[in-house]
């Protein structure tokens, strides 16, 4: 016959599902429910599957050490504390671990700075075979707060639900729908935010972002899908998220630089990344000089902010190039003149780069009679094996812009890969279909690794008693 579990009035316990490997808990048979001392409690997720996330400061003497936790909500319950105050609390369920034994326990979440113990174990959280010795303390093996070093917590950190925002004006596109579907399949809450309906408060002490009249909550990650037509405002919103400390998959500076073709080519040139010979001038008097720099016709003339192949013209002869340049100047449009890589034969390579890795590569072939291989222009896509040089070039190009997710377009030339463009909002449909890979899944692998719970050092919070 096994001996009953003996508990003192205080014990060391663990809540592994919440990433809390060591807590000092008070055992109180006078209380019915168990409680966890939580801060910044915030509900999220759909009404059909509500969740709650919060911060936990497990070491009373170190209020700057915060563990981010999340769990499904099992109830909301009015609880009366020992001082007679009634409070409506969220209730979660977690596994309590003590001396090799594990059992489920319901925990109410409360933000009370006066609580000396980070956890209180009430009658409902005590196993039936347990014996409580109120005159004793630490009847079970003692743990240590040393487990909260960054390396150790990362080893035991559980999966937790994340709250993720997708900045997009097009919730029904393939890419946005896949981001939502894949995130929700993994238990995360993914919210599509219309970029143009966000607005900001610029305040030195409390900058914030609002949406539909309410302040947006704090997100674990933001996935920007900023369209080319709203780049200035879209990047301003991303920059505001960066200002308030939210991790953005692609930063505002990288999106801005990649959208301006002149700026983008200057970034590539600074990093000594191969690209077609490119020239830019402002004065009409320099048209002939531009042609001399790029070489003999045919040449490519493209608007600085062209996307999806629009605003890109192939000039077959020198006279045709001069006519296109004259027309663009008449529209007061900024443009580049670029070498036409004949040996590419209307094909380019799109590499999807995530977190410094090429996750997929596809070959895009232009439709008959078309020189642009963009899928929006009728091009077709197929899986392709890339060379080591092409892989390294794509990774370097994405890194040059500081992009966590990028579509890098390469041309295969006689003297090695040439970068045509770095896209900060690459579409997933063509790449997933052609490669057969779950690219959104790979993206969430990267986001989850980046947002995995670990001790966060907070400043400016006074010690709790």
UniProtKB/TrEMBL annotation:
Transmembrane segments: none
Name by which UniProt lists this protein: Probable alpha-L-glutamate ligase
Top-level taxon: Bacteria
Gene symbol of the encoding locus: rimK_1
PROSITE patterns cross-referenced by the UniProt entry: ATP_GRASP
Keyword line: ATP-binding, Ligase, Magnesium, Manganese, Metal-binding, Nucleotide-binding, Protein biosynthesis
Required co-factors: Mn(2+); Mg(2+)
Pfam families hit by this protein: RimK, Rimk_N, Zn_protease
UniProt record similarity statement: In the C-terminal section; belongs to the RimK family.
Limits of the ATP-grasp domain: 265-448
Species the sequence originates in: Palleronia marisminoris
GO molecular function, one term: ribosomal S6-glutamic acid ligase activity
Tagged with keyword Ligase: yes
GO BP terms: SOS response; translation
Amino-acid biosynthesis found in the keyword field: no
GO annotations of cellular component type: cytoplasm
PANTHER family: RIBOSOMAL PROTEIN BS6--L-GLUTAMATE LIGASE (PTHR21621:SF7), RIBOSOMAL PROTEIN S6 MODIFICATION PROTEIN (PTHR21621)
